[in-house]
Predict the 3D structure of the following.
Amino acid sequence: MTSNQEHNSDHLPELIYNETTIQAARTLLQLYTTMAYELCSTLASAYRIDSSNIPAASTTNSTSFEALFDYIYEQDLESDPIVFYKNEDWFIDLHGEHCLFQSQTGISIEVSIYNYEWIDAGFFSSFIHSLAKSQSSDYSPLAQILITAIPPANFQSILSLLEHMSTLGIVNQQTPVNFTLTDSPVFY
């Protein structure tokens, strides 16, 4: 699934989002952005990338890891790097403006190298499904709750949920399919 899929919410059945659904989505969105940052930071540490060799764009308080990935690309590695995160190996696939991280247990998270806080509706859908299938994540039950609440939790239903959350001020819509969390507490 890619973020280039056509946005067509008009063909979705009317979904009612209750407090449990909104809270589950917010918690999983927070997990997504936290893991995105930690995986990128772990990648930088794993390859002992000297921060003095990386332009300031990927230093603390920045949401961009573009310079980090450019630096890794320039190293012309013979194979994609593997990072150790949360007690398991994560395989990475650097491609275009995204990096796919996939754990040995099947959890996948796709990160924008320009802004790790951006949450693509299609990539978030894949993340939720991979998390729900995982035997090793404490968040699996929460992901299953969300999938059950907005079946089939595909690109379109996730996009609809995120658009609704945008009207509540929980996320900001950055592009037709990319969102970021706000700092606002949820009052539903």
About this structure: The mean pLDDT is 81. DSSP finds five helices and seven strands in the chain. Residues 16-181 form one domain. The first strand starts at residue 82 and ends at 85.
